[in-house]
Amino acid sequence: MTVTALLVSHEGARWLPAVLAGLRDQQLPPDRILAVDTGSGPDTLGLLTDALGPDAVATCDGHFPDAVRQALATIDTEWVWILHDDANPDPGALRELVAAAASHDADILGPKLREWPSLRRLLELGVTISATGRRETGLERGEYDQGQHDDIREVLAVNTAGMLVRREVLERLDGFEPELPLFATDIDFGWRAARAGHKTIVVPQAVVFHAEAGHRGLRRTRLMGRRTRTHRAEREAALFVLLANGRRLPWMLVRLFFGSLVRVLGFLLARQPGHAADELVALGHVYTHPLRVRRARRARRDVHGAEPVDVRPLLAPWWVPYRHGLDFVVDLGTAAAMEGRDAAERRRAQRLAAAAAASAGSHTGLAEHHPAGPDDAEELAADSGWLVRFVTSPLAVVSVVLVLLALYAARQALHPLAGGALSPAPDSTSNWWDLVLHGWHHLGQGTDAPDPGYLLPFSILSSLPFFSPNVVVGVLFLLAVPVAGWGAWRVGKVVAELGSGREASPMLVGWAAATYALVPAVSGAWGQGRFGVVASAALLPWLAHAALGFVEPSSDRRWRAGWRCGLLLSLITAFTPVAWLYFLLAVLGVVAVGIRLVGAPMRERSAWGPLAVALAAPPVLLLPGTLGVLGHDISAIFLEAGRLASTPGPLGLLTGRFDDYAAPAWIGLTLVVPAVLALARRRSRIAVVICWVLIALAAVLAMLLSRITINLPAGDARPGLGFLLLVIQGALVTAVLVAAHGVRAELRGQRLSWRQPLALVLTATILVAPIAGWAWWLAGPDDQLDRPAAGDVPAYMDQVTRSAPGRGVLVLDGDVESGLTWFVQRGDGTTLGDDEILALTEPDTALDRDVAALVSQPEPDVVGRMSGHGIDYIVMPAPVDPQVAATLDAASGITQASAADRDTRAWQFDEAAPADAIDGDGPWWHGPLLTLQVLAILVIIVLCGPTRRELR
Amino acid sequence: MSATPTGSGRRIAESDTGGRRFGPLVVAGLVAILVTMGALALQAPAAEQIPPPPEAPARTPLTVADLACPSADSSSVTIGSDSQQDGEGSVGVSTGGSDPEPVELSAGEATRARASGDPVVVRGEGALAPGLFASRYAGAGRAAGECPAPTGSTWFVGVGSSGVHDSRLQLTNPDAGPAVADLSLWSTDGPMEEVRSRGLTVPGGDTTTIDLSDLAPHPRELAMQVTVSRGRVAASVLDGYAIPGQKPTEDWLTASAEPATKLAVPGLSKEADERTLVLANPGDTGGRVKLRVTGKQSTFAPAGLEPIEVPAGQVVVTDLTDQLAGALNGEDTALELTSTVPVTGTLRDVVDSDLVQLPAVAPASGRTATTAPEKGERTLMLTTGAEKGGAFEVTFVGATKGGDWRGRLKPGTTTVVEVPDGTIAVLADGPAPYVGGVRTRSGDGSSFLPLRTLTYDRILPKVAPALPDE
């Protein structure tokens, strides 16, 4: 068996000496050694010439396939052993390969490839390709060689590094494919050989150490200008191989096209837009050069004839691409879940390091202080089952109990709710989608006022299976308190560590979480149906947690904090718009103070950039509303979600209470004094001062806003202060939380003085708030929420109004002495999301005049005009003013209609209103802005995502 | 202290600057607290959103007024209009939905117009509509009945549904479309439940007559409320007495006031053979009614005049003949009713074996009017309330001489003024709450028509759009 070793090199001066030494040390030396260089510098050539002699070294102007073809002409041995300049063969490699060639009837043999630096990790043992074009080795990444794959087996292809191939096979197949100079050359060759009937086996006993230079991008070739473009070339090569060698071309074209699009989406989700672009470019390149593929296929058909061998058993199984997809999704999820874990690990490591440094000179010995925190507990019990860990952790039990109690106390939300500031939910999701997608709303007399910002997330949530508008409202009210508590727990742990410099005490953080979680309920927001404040209360701790990312040292994390803050702030602004104003002032303050205190680092773009992004996100993410409200009263931006409700006074802000349906106010005062006294604690002073500055900012903003009157068409209103109330309560809780850390440790050793009783008193004081609050809430207090009451409008009129928006019911209320009020009910009445639109709508003065004429002197032309206004019926609920009723009775063109009960009067206009009576055109910019908004939301969601570890 | 590491904010908690006792941080914190308290102090108090403002209605002069006259033996209707408007106006009388026949009338005047004996509708339009009033007479002033305007609720106390005393209710609908009225009846035994909510339909332009003895037979006096649930209906009651051994008579029963706690019954004659007070208490609680007599000089409670207990939902018939026998001192007086619960009533006098029904009237100040019959001895009685008196002015419309009368009336007194010849209608005006009426006495019998407040304006309710909050 004669063997020629063919060494193809390209700028491999780094590894060449070792390769040459390896060749020399072969136990079975090759009969001849040839080297072809494809364009290296003089040192490589010099090395080769020195080692092999000048006539064994040739140069070639092309790439690897051209080099092989050129050398093939001068080879006359039976076998050719191809080596790369970064493939160092083990001394027994060639011997094993030749022995296997003799005993097995194979035409191509490949060695076991092991990683060069480590020498023990497996790289390849034969390679195949999956249906999506991914190179499959069948090995785990970084798998150590423990002899687990040591059987000689048939494979589709082997790597060209260390390949032993018959010369006649090479000649028959015309060497390697010239269209694949760098990547997938081996797979294509092996595939072609298999279809032509040649057998390829892998011989694990022969070992070659491969540095994988071309693959890892360490080699600078003419093809690769930059390292990062390996992905594109790889992908292009894989696509070409599949299309050139695959069986059913049309099916493969379609499948590869859509498969590439899915991969593009995956890369975008993983925040690797470069790779996504690479995929698209590769796809485009291959598909726009169909002649290459056709030529390649024809060449192959010439080789293997009409009946090629079926190579399907050698290809990767069909489920491999799906498993990779599943791995990708699991990866993303794990990365998201591991986020907090990483931050906690970092913090704990730093804290332990600081403790070790401090314990050298301090007598408290924090290093020995190993509290059984949740991190440690989880670490210690990492091997036990989760149930054991759950039951033995008092924290977990308490939190579950509290969550269950919260769900029980909020059980009213299990049935449809309405009342207070909460209008009843519409019948179906399509009502909400209509409001969101169309610029013209069939409400009142038809209006183009913008829909509220929270309708888009509500609509999306409500479109999920098993969800409906009532379910969305119920979920919001049920889960607000648990979600607020969870968020408060998460942010409490971080803030406690940052602010007090000590490890977060689970009891104190638990107290903070329990106190804050209750704020939506005890403040009366829950009972009054202020769903905007309730939603903001649940989201505020998550926003605070994201905002803490602004103080991270890493710029990447700061930017990510900016995106996350932007998204959460937009969501909160949709519910309570004052949040954006507050954030604006806070950011301006932070930047000003930062420039003053820190100077130059604050001016860097990565310092203030994320803040600016977080500020700019809400107007963009709430686009149609942002622009739409400009055409109406711009100060109406600051109205809270839901029906107009009262604003709290100064005492209400301090104690965290809206006026009615709230827990007793004195409970709220129990937080204020401890928060003031928290200034006295030295270690946590900065954090407490920051909290109080935030409170002061909120109070000042509340003072300014409470003086502003918003002139709505229907009357005057005041901006909603609910968000400021939440901020004040959250900041008070945070101040107490941060300052209370370490009190026990400090006081333990000291002798009895005024400090201990004071600490006891303060502890008792701060415990009052959560205990009394929970007791009050669990006792089931009165609230304004109840099942939506049937209106005064009879059921058959409801059906008519639902059938067409142009047919409405005019509802008159009041009496002659104190004035009558009217409104027009359309569709399913005024439901959630309609109130804000109606509040911004100018009343129709023509209709007002006509209604005034109708109730005092209904002339026939007035009656006739009503159908043009889109009104079919008149309803007067009890108590009915007899004069108005008599006037309407006497009018011609109006006939009596039956009402639900005797005390309600109803009339019907003889002329029915047309179904399009209130049709109109929305603003032209609604559609484009909506598209822009959706795109911005998608982009920011992707940007918020956690980073996956790069796989390549 | 340990060296302060630079870098991330994670270390700021351990830095040095928080160490001093009153360092800049403490000052900053105290300033923040003070700013907070200051801002809270300056904040506007809690505010309700958009309180709806109540708005008083506007008033414009009436342009159309309808009055419904009950059927009568006579063929005339006395119509007057106390309008101060200038401009075009017309008055017409129509029967049963037919076209109205015009009547010659000018503002501030009264006339006796020809009309059929059937129920008629008097319609005033334009400048004559404000202050329109009308009545009918039967016999030479023996029986007098007013022509009421359609109203939502009318009370009749002292109707009967027995064989001896039978009342007939006449409901007139002046509009084109149908109207629906309900009756509620109370008897001496309590509310008559089974005839509540009858839903009586009166066709457009038509009159429906209902015999109470068919509807709700009861041996004793009843009180009745007519409420209109749809359209407009004017109600009148014809009372028929068929006392055995005497000639059957028929008179109109004038509507009493809405139940109130202070009412007056004007027009008591000097002598009467019988006086019967019928009181109705339609409410849920029983009460007590105190009676006082308003005489020429003062209001007094005669000895022996006991307060009357009125149980809830019942009609109480009290014979006051003996109690008032000597107490009236031969004066024309009025009866003042003060009750603990809202009541209404009628006083039935039998004078010269003729029945005179005197309704309870709510005192009111301002302009009032009534008509006077052609023949008979006619006197005007004015009774002021106990609190206030004042200068009163009376105009006798159509009088040949002495058409004006002015006088200063003391509070709590009854004043009697002779009605001069030729008077068709009487217009009174006074600053204090008062009641009164025109009593007619003739050979055939006596009758009394109370002074009624006139309607000049139409109330235009203020209409405003509302935010739906339900």
From TrEMBL, chain A:
Which key words are in the record? Membrane, Transferase, Transmembrane, Transmembrane helix
Pfam families assigned to the protein according to its UniProt record, in alphabetical order: Glyco_tranf_2_3
Q: Name one GO molecular function term.
A: transferase activity
Task: Return the InterPro entries for the record.
Answer: Glycosyltransf_2 (IPR050834), Nucleotide-diphossugar_trans (IPR029044)
**Transmembrane segments annotated in the record for this chain:** 386-408, 466-488, 508-526, 533-551, 571-595, 607-630, 661-680, 687-710, 722-745, 757-777, 924-944
- The name of this protein is Glycosyltransferase family 2 protein
Species in which this protein is naturally found? Nocardioides guangzhouensis
Automatic annotation (TrEMBL), chain B:
Report the InterPro entries cross-referenced here: DUF5719
Keywords assigned: Membrane, Transmembrane, Transmembrane helix
Q: Where is the composition biased (Polar residues)?
A: 72-86
One protein family per Pfam: DUF5719
* Region (Disordered) residue spans: 71-118
Q: Compositional bias (Low complexity) spans? A: 87-98
| Membrane-spanning residues | 21-42
Q: What is this protein called?
A: Secreted protein
